[in-house]
Design goal:
alpha/beta; Nucleotidyltransferase, domain 5; 2 domains; 5-stranded mixed sheet; 25% strand
Length: 240
């Protein structure tokens, strides 16, 4: 068995894999990420462990991770050469790159628009031949709420509401409707640019927003892990 790990802005996700298939998955939100990975590998040492991180892995953490597996593949800002092998620009973070790798595999021969709705909101476009056409980065939902509170002394911090009204009639409902509606308009605008594309949502807020959209949308919560599994499978083939 192999292990894939995604260290994101907010949480760590991991999954055992066999070939390109995901097995048991894990989620952790805290500071002791390397210790959590060690707890997963205590009983079973993975043949290959792939760790993709939005932050650069320190030499000490790398040494610890290498002791947990037979082969370690690091994917962070200091290790970007692998992206060239998959014809993906090196400026993309590995979470976005992994999502694109998974989408190209799952929807082969079809153009796609991929939204990752988390701490940030990213949108990426892939044509029917699997070529990356570009993408954008914006603030995620909770990040927008925090920014309004932080940079305006008069506005409170609110959380994602279950429901919104078209127009707010209090400060709180105005913030809720403004942020949520703004994101929905943003999403719809991107969808309308390429109406022929398959639309894929992933990330922590994917299910929340898909319920509010009228379009036909695929929600794939473990899209990044699926991409990492495909990267791992290709890596294992080369080892053998």
């Amino acid at each position: 068995m192999n292990l894939v790990v995604e260290i994101g802005n907010t949480a760590l996700k991991a999954a055992w894999t066999e070939g390109s298939t995901l097995g048991k998955t894990f989620r952790y939100q805290g500071e002791r990420k390397v210790s959590f990975i060690a707890s997963i590998t205590d009983r079973e040492r993975p043949q290959v462990m792939v760790v993709a991180s939005v932050c650069e892995i320190s030499p000490d953490d790398e040494k610890s991770l290498r002791g947990m597996c037979h082969h370690l593949l690091l994917l962070d800002a200091a290790h970007t050469s692998l992206l060239r092998e998959f014809d993906i620009p090196e400026h993309l973070s590995y979470d976005r790159a992994s999502s694109l790798i998974a989408v190209r595999h799952m929807f082969r021969g079809q153009s796609c628009t991929v939204f990752d709705l988390g701490t940030t909101m990213t949108v990426d476009f892939v044509d029917a031949e699997g070529n990356y056409q570009g993408g954008n980065i914006s603030l995620g939902c909770r990040t927008r709420f925090k920014a309004l509170s932080r940079y305006s002394k008069a506005l409170p911090l609110v959380d994602i509401p279950d429901e919104i009204t078209p127009y707010g009639n209090t400060v709180k409902s105005s913030i809720e409707a403004g942020v949520i509606s703004g994101i929905m308009f943003e999403i719809q605008g991107y969808i309308d640019r390429k109406p022929e594309n398959i639309v894929v949502f992933t990330g922590g807020d994917a299910i929340y927003f898909v319920k509010k959209m009228k379009n036909s949308i695929f929600v794939i919560c473990n899209l990044v892990l699926m991409g990492l599994a495909l990267i791992t499978d290709e890596y294992v083939r080369k080892l053998n």
